[in-house]
Amino acid sequence: MAIQAPATRPANPRFSSGPCAKIPTFSLDLLSDAPLGRSHRAAVGKAKLLAAIETTRDILGIPADYKIGIVPGSDTGAVEMAMWSLLGARKATMVAWESFGAGWVTDVVKQLKIDADVMTAEYGDIVDFDKVDFNTDVVFTWNGTTSGARVPNGDKIPAARDGLTICDATSAAFAMDLPWDKLDVTTFSWQKVLGGEAAHGIIVLSPRAVERLESYTPAWPMPKIFRMTKGGKLIDGIFKGETINTPSMLAVEDYLVALEWAKSVGGLEGLIARATANAKVIWDFCDAKPWIANLANDPATASNTSVCLKFTDDRIQDGAAFAKAVAKRLEVEGVALDIGAYRDAPAGLRIWCGGTVETADVAALMPWLEYAFEAEIAAQ
Ligand SMILES: Cc1ncc(COP(=O)(O)O)c(C=O)c1O
C-alpha cells in the first residue's frame, strides 16, 4: 500500500535550533528604525543599546542590582569571557551532559588548566545536582541544546554558597524560568529563543560576580574583548550600552523588535507557555507512537525548546543513516528544515519549540514525521 503524504503542511517549516525561527510577525520593514551608518556611541545608538539591556531586564525579571552587558562573540563569547575573567580564584566544578557543556569542560581543563572536578552524564540524562559542591565555582548549561535535557529548576542550588554559578542559558532564556538568586553569571545569545540575529551575546552578572571581578585578577593575560574591569573596578559603561567594540545596530534593532513581540505575547510567562505548548505536541506524539521517544529520559528534565528525539523501532537497520534520511525527506518535502540531531549527539531528530514557533506548525509536522518514518522503513 502506498504511503499517503499528509494533506496539511506547517506554514513555517523552520524548526532549527539556532539561528531559530524569527518572530511570527517578522518582516525586514520592522527594522527600518535601525540607526544604520551612525556611531553606536552617538546618543541614538547608546539609547538603543540601553533599551535592549533594560527591556531584557524587564522581560526576564532580572533584579535591579544585576549587571547586564551586550558582548561580542554571541553566547560563546559571553561564556568564555565569564570563565576567563572569573575562574581560578577557587576550585571549579565543570558539569556537562551534552556537547556544548563538554566544550566548556575542555576549555577550562585543557586551556585555562583550572583545578576542576568534572561531572558528566550521558546524552538524555543530567548530572545529580545533589552531588555538586556549590562552594566551588560551578559551570553548567541550563538546557542541553544537543540532548534536550535541562535542569528542571534551581532548587538544588543553595542560595548561600561560597562559589559562583556560571550558567550557559542560551537555549533556556526566554523559554524557562531562571532563578536569578541562584545564578551569578548567566549567558545567552540573540540568535536563539527570540529568533534574533547572530553575533551578540548577553552576560548577566550578580553582585557576587561583580565582587569577584573587582577582587580577583587571573594569572593569565586578558584579551581586550573579554575585559570587564579596569584598574580593579568594573567598567560600568559596558552595562549601560557602551559596548567593548562595535555592535551591529541592525542586529540590535532586530533584538528590540523581538523583545517588543515578546511583550505582546505576555512576556516571559507567555513565552514559556508557547514553548511548552509546542513541546507538548511532540511529547504527546511520542507517547502515542511506539517507534519514537524523547531523548530526555526523565520527563522532568525534558526540554521545552530543543526537543530531541530517538527512533526506537527494531526494524531500523542503521540508526544514523535512518535518522538522516527522515530529516532529509522532511526537508525535501519543505515541511521541516534543519531538524537532524546535532553532529555530536546520538542519531535522531531535534525540533526547536521555542516561542517564535507556532503550535499549529508543530502539530502539522507530526503526521509528516510519521509519513517520513513509514516511508524510510519501507525504503530500507
Ligand atoms: C548550550 C549552547 N551553548 C553555546 C552555544 C553557542 O552559541 P553561539 O553560537 O550563539 O555562540 C549554543 C548554540 O547552539 C548552545 O546551544
Automatic annotation (TrEMBL):
Q: Which cofactor does it need?
A: pyridoxal 5'-phosphate
| Pathway annotation | Amino-acid biosynthesis; L-serine biosynthesis; L-serine from 3-phospho-D-glycerate: step 2/3
What is this protein identified as? phosphoserine transaminase
This enzyme catalyses: O-phospho-L-serine + 2-oxoglutarate = 3-phosphooxypyruvate + L-glutamate
Under InterPro entries, the record lists:
Pser_aminoTfrase, Pser_aminoTfrase_methanosarc, PyrdxlP-dep_Trfase, PyrdxlP-dep_Trfase_major, PyrdxlP-dep_Trfase_small
GO BP of this protein: glycine biosynthetic process, by transamination of glyoxylate; L-serine biosynthetic process
Q: What EC identifiers does the entry list?
A: 2.6.1.52
Q: Name one GO molecular function term.
A: L-serine-pyruvate transaminase activity
Q: Which family does it belong to?
A: Belongs to the class-V pyridoxal-phosphate-dependent aminotransferase family. SerC subfamily.
Q: Which domain of life is it from?
A: Bacteria
Which keywords are on file for this protein? Answer: Amino-acid biosynthesis, Aminotransferase, Cytoplasm, Pyridoxal phosphate, Serine biosynthesis, Transferase
